[in-house]
């Protein structure tokens, strides 16, 4: 059974192979069924004159196999192409409307808060949020190719009937699907099974066309009887194809059931682990059982995405074809004392939830009391301050989160000035916030940077940057990267031209002071990586390196760069490097620390792109080595911890943020580590 994020990725890949195997089997059976229909039509056309030897004809079988394969492949490729945009395409397909933070209702604001907290706590980009406004049932889904293009959608009924703890449990369940790699498999299921459904649609079309043609030709003479017989054969062919197609749909539902059911138990358990509040998700499941509409989705496209929902979105003929486990069984795995009696949901429940929304969202169960920004800063420290760090725990936390991380994310978001957070949530302001994060404290350099921003910029851009800059400058160092994460959904709404203009300014802003701080590299790497994938929409990185051997030089370059950034001198850099090499599992003989001139940020960028194509076990070894190297002495700065998160993010391994120490030692002394390198690197 999968025990950590990396095991879950391997399981997800195995499920993909299983899906392809089921799909091939279904296609073979459909080919044989279509061949049987074609043969029956041949017999009907010849009025039974075809001999037994003609019942099996290899040439006819090859023709049928080719035709069916082309139709299914074309249908699958077409559907896959329409879903290339990722999660937003699925959300719109199901009637979702993007939530505008500036015009959000109290219930939608509560939803956005929960999603933002969960994203920052888990180290993933903040997903775009949609609401299925026409759906009165309780349901939700996460969709996308990867965390960078993920969306979360919830039904209006979820907002109306679930309190904050229950909604948080549902969102945590969906984040489990994001983190465990389930979303990509879900999209592949939709694409592949659409090709099978296309057979039924073709049969239905033939049946209607020939039926209409037959009705219009009834007045013709008996000379057309032979032609009518052929028409009837084609009509029957259409009926047969439709029947075969819906048999394919039956197989499709079985495939969805085989792939999906166990994942729901895992996501439920992960939601409890993330929130440490079993009553939340259990309460949501119980309300589904007590609500008249349950979790049923009325949208006509619900069947295509039924395997993606939090609860069963459509009804099934038998339990064997259900994409979700029985509701009572799911609840009892979380709450063993559940008696099977569901609560009665009435209009008063909607009123109570609405009143809670108007009063404002309560803090998380583990969140501290709201604190002023200065208080948070005092507990966290500056970017160069060192704090205790356990490399093994950091790598083990990849792909997970916890109640403490959610509470910390909540406190971070509360520490942001309200006006600054609101600005980051809309497209024009989000660009200004990112520019402000990159402004230098030196007045002369800042003036140069403002000139870069002003060049061919939209009117008012520099003024907006100057307005938010004092707010950004006053932020605690640990809140700066989450602020950029908060801006990602708004930046996704830019046009391609606007995004390219925004992107073209990032590197010049960083190079303006002839240095590149760890924060600047981290921000540029994480932000542009996810946005580039959104706007360019390239395919996810394939696994090209199942072993470490072809990546040894890349690993040495990464570890050398990290050692030189964190080491206080050459001897310490070599010692940090040696510990990283040992954690990687390489023999120390013949492995040397790379010269300083080879440890550039440009080279690190290219190296991380190659390492992203490694298998999950190799990625785990690389992250173990990087974490060990950065914290060879058991300490790490905030900037170094964020750099490690950027490396993990580059490998598609989301890492939660570094939690502040429970009891920092104010008397500990020692030089701070370097947090910048020359911009030429």
From TrEMBL:
Residue spans of biased composition, Pro residues class: 655-664
Source species of the chain: Singulisphaera acidiphila (strain ATCC BAA-1392 / DSM 18658 / VKM B-2454 / MOB10)
UniProt keyword annotation of Lipid metabolism present: no
Region listing for Disordered, in residue ranges: 359-378, 655-681
Protein name: Zn-dependent protease with chaperone function
Protease as UniProt keyword: yes
Taxonomy, superkingdom: Bacteria
Biological classification of the source: Bacteria, Pseudomonadati, Planctomycetota, Planctomycetia, Isosphaerales
Annotated Peptidase M48 domain residues: 108-335
GO biological process: proteolysis
